[in-house]
Amino acid sequence: MVWPFKKVKPRIRDSWLAQNSISTRWSDAFNKSKRELTGDIKQQSDILLTHEARLKELEVSKNQIDMEMTMLKEESNEEGISEQLKRDHLAKLKLLEGKFTQDLDNSLSTMKSIREASNTRWLLENIKNKHFTDPERLSDPPVFEPKSWSQIFAELPETDDLDDDYLHEMYDHFGIAYTKKANEDGEQKTNDIDDLV
After folding, report:
1. Residue 38 lies in a domain
2. What is the mean pLDDT of residues 111-132?
3. Tens digit of each residue's pLDDT (9 = 90 or more) over 135-173
4. Per the domain annotation, does 103 fall within a domain?
5. Using CA atoms, how far apart are residues 167 and 92, in angstroms rounded to an integer?
6. Within this chain, do residues 124 and 170 fall inside the same structural domain, yes or no?
7. pLDDT tops 80 at residue 106
8. Residue 166, helix vs strand vs coil
9. Does residue 135 share a domain with residue 75?
10. Are residues 159 and 130 in the same domain?
11. pTM here?
12. pLDDT band at 181 (very low <50, low <70, confident <90, very high)
């Protein structure tokens, strides 16, 4: 008898999602159908495009504010400028600085949203394409003992210990010229032949 219900896969760990800048609302993504995943991927792509357009607008705004502030500073330092005009420039500079700070905060927030949408889309695409099949393995990958370069090189065989076939293969691989030694067995056989025969 076939079990009538679809097997429910475990949820992705919240800690893994948070570490990868993905909302915990996607913890059940492995239980979504291919159709649902396709719709979610499109949604994340649309969100990404919206945020990228917003980020460009903010960059343009910041550049304009920066140019205005530079001009006001230069005008304020000109000789013969009245004290009243200096104060007017100062008031404008304060307003512009506040707007620049606001745009900067919005840029950082938008960049965070771009990262979330991009990482979410990456996760959903890999689940849909079956590159990721196990939420537990994804959330808790096997831990390998970290090794330093000195440990790795210490484990490599010494070049003196390599057999000739392997050594020649490596020479060929890296394009290093070498000369083959004459076959000692062949020389031995020729020396064993009796000259009188």
Report:
1. yes
2. 95
3. 988 877 655 566 666 666 566 555 556 667 766 776 777
4. yes
5. 74
6. no
7. yes
8. helix
9. yes
10. no
11. 0.64
12. low
User: Which residue type is seen at 165?
Assistant: D
Residues 6+ apart with CB under 8 A from 93: 69, 72, 73
Question: Mind listing the pLDDT tens digit for each residue in 53-79?
Answer: 999 999 999 999 999 999 999 998 888
> What is the distance between the alpha carbons of residues 49 and 58, in angstroms, rounded to a whole number?
14
Are 40 and 129 members of one domain? yes
Task: Answer yes or no: are the C-beta atoms of 20 and 119 closer than 8 Å.
Answer: yes
| 3 inside domain | no
Report how far residue 33's alpha carbon sits from residue 124's, in angstroms, rounded to the nearest whole number: 11
DSSP annotation of 161: G
Nearest to 85 by CA among 66, 64, 93, 67: 93
Residue 2 in domain: no
Q: What share of the chain is helix, strand, coil (3-state, %, to 5)?
A: 70, 0, 30
Q: What is the pLDDT of residue 168?
A: 73
Q: What is the DSSP letter of 129?
A: T
Examine the domain organization and report whether 120 and 86 are in the same domain.
yes
Name which of 51, 40, 41, 44 is nearest 114 in CA terms: 51
Are residue 116 and residue 159 in the same domain, yes or no? no
55 & 80 share domain: yes
Q: How many domains does the chain have?
A: 2
Query: Between 180 and 9, whose confidence is greater?
Result: 9
What is the number of alpha carbons within 13 Å of residue 116 lying toward its C-beta?
15
**Range(s) of the domain holding residue 175:** 149-192
pLDDT, tens digit (0-9, with 9 covering 90-100), for 185-195: 454 544 555 55
Tokens of 193: 């032949």
